[in-house]
Amino acid sequence: MPSQVLLINPNRLQPAVAPLALDYLADALRERGLEAQLLDLCFEPDPARAVAERLSSADPTLIGITIRNTDDCYCASADYFLPEFAHLVSEVRAHASAPIVLGGSGFSVAPAPILQLLGADYGIHGDGEIPLALLAEALCSGENVAEIPGLVWRNEDGIVANPPWRGSPKTLPPRSRSFLDNARYFAEGGQAGLETKRGCDRACIYCADPLSKGRALRARSPAQVADEFEVLLAQGVDYFHLCDSEFNAPVSHALAVCEELAARGLGGRARWYTYATPAGFTAELARAMRRAGCVGVNFGADSGDDGMLAALGRDFRAADLRETARACREAGLVFMFDLLLGGPGETRETAARTIELMKEISPHRVGVSLGVRIYPGTALCAQVMREGPLERNANLRGAVADNPDFIAPVFYLSSLLGEEPGGYIADLVGGDPKFFFPVAEQGAEAYNYNDNQRLVEAVQRGHRGAYWDILRRLAEEEGRA
Fold this sequence. Notes:
It is a single chain. This protein has 17 helices and 20 strands. The chain is an alpha/beta fold. The radius of gyration is 22 Å and the shape is globular. It folds into 2 domains: 158 residues, Cobalamin-binding domain (Rossmann fold), CATH 3.40.50.280; 256 residues, pyruvate-formate lyase- activating enzyme. The strands form 4 sheets. An 8-stranded parallel beta sheet has the order 8-11-12-13-14-15-19-20, sandwiched between helices. Strands 2-1-3-4-5-6-7 form a 7-stranded mixed beta sheet, sandwiched between helices. It has a 3-stranded antiparallel beta sheet with strand order 16-18-17, with no helix packed on it. The N and C termini lie far apart (59 Å).
């Protein structure tokens, strides 16, 4: 009998978001002759009972738990998920003797401290397809695991973190998208995710993506991307969200993907959204994306003040935001600018310039996030550590005590914004319905997707697409555009 790997999805947030990694991991396990099984807690009314029942009849070689997020990343709510995952690890241990391995983008933000906190046996930092299969094989045969790439494990000296696997995704098995119930996720979540590349070569001071996914861009071929579109279309899924850190980095690959999708006629069958950077976003690319089926783009704009953009490590300026907006409008793309206010050096004047620019440019929507999540290993984290004890830092909010690894949410919120920064930003916005806040602020739309009942009901009524765009369409239907 082949080694059995039970993969558990603990993410129960609604609307339902499919654990994309598990689909990809299952393909890699099967290619090596390993059996992948699924316990998806997203749709279980009683997760604890589901765990107990499944493990009473299963005897896996290895149990994997994916951690997509450690928290909801918003200063206003600061919902922290790791204690729930620690409880899940304990429940699994109570019913099974198999080793437990953690993985996922959330885990890869801080592998060693998260492994320690949750009490699992192993973790995999970064890409998991090859390391997970190697771990399952080693456990089955009794071989040494010490050389497995990306493995986070314990030896006599403590926790060891091996360098992650950073191979080309072109070498991974074809994406069959057959492990998850993608049709159900589409019905209850309104979109399906896929990726065109891995890694991020940007230098944003706050972002953990380069740490968890690698700084080198590792692209899939345009044909592989189009094949995955077609596989999901055959399952009845026709709205997609590309999960790249930045779709247009580099622009040449983005154009090649668009050309392949258009050449196959997928631009008329698939509708997709993506993240992109205003740096180098051209009119040519906007037109190519629209021909390929793109209907909406979420840009990490962060600020409209050139000084703040420089301080945040961004490689574009306010003029680029204007050009990006022009390119999107001319191509017929709906677009959103996401702001990240309150970083180092943010003042009332810089924030006011940002809001003023957003009103001038008038994107279809503007997301306003106040407070910058601090992740270990980032330039922002190093800066904060140089500023002295966290408890005495007037710029910090959140879990500043007994949290040296920053795995519980800590946010940088510039004290130069004054005593009531949220109220000040809301006053600047002045009730403009184009602006979203993480929580409802003076009547503004809340765009925190963490158990957003308004979105859940909209998807149930048949709305599809990126959640920010669903909220935009709802507002238009209600005359609040």
